[in-house]
Amino acid sequence: MDNDKAWEYALGMIKVDGLEPSKEYLELIEKEKKGEITTEDIRKVLDKKYRAKDSN
């Protein structure tokens, strides 16, 4: 499975649960597809964002 198909599958799994990915998440995915960031970078961004919310 190529990278684009993997992301399509992942987004489909999110939507099956009745959820919509955020604009920020979709932008991160596009950057990863272009090779500008890695999936590890995406994880770090999301961890930082949601851990900051948990501590408030």
Automatic annotation (TrEMBL):
Gene3D superfamilies, per database record: Antitoxin VbhA-like (1.10.8.1050)
Source superkingdom: Bacteria
InterPro entries in UniProt: VbhA-like, VbhA_sf
Name of this protein: Antitoxin VbhA domain-containing protein
The species this protein was found in: Proteiniborus ethanoligenes
Organism placement in taxonomy: Bacteria, Bacillati, Bacillota, Clostridia, Eubacteriales
